[in-house]
Amino acid sequence: MGKLKKSRNRNTYNYNVNKKKLKIKLKKKDNPHIECDQIRKAWDDQKTTKQNLADMGLLVGKKGILPIKTKKAKEEQQSMDSNVPSKPYVIKALEEEASQRGSKKLTCSRDMIEYVQHMVREHNENYKAMARDEKNYYQDTPKQIKRKVELYKRCYPKEYDAFIASLQTQKST
Q: Keyword annotations for this protein (predicted)?
């Protein structure tokens, strides 16, 4: 005689799951962290994502960008045109942030600078000889060494010029 269906499928407590962590994980999933400061400040937890983004004048996804040729879409478009975002300051702040140009900071490690200076000091612009050098521990190819030298030139142009000038003065004396 078999067991009853209810007793077989009964839920049992799982002692291997930390309920506190599970609750925190579910909370994070429900309310994800918004990286953008402007959107986070204007966000209303009582509204849906679509309503929040519509208030800010933003679109949810790519779906709303391209027009769809239907009567229903035309009616929605007319209603959307009449809806002016209630939080236009969000768009202005995002545009302002996007228009600011970020400065690119290229840096080279101290080891790489010493490596490049040694190679240039010993071999000048002869990259094949640099590839055969004893200090080429990583067995860089001539092209890889050339890229490293060019990176050093881009990162520290004044320092490179001073280094080359000091090499030329040493050769002349």
A: Nucleus
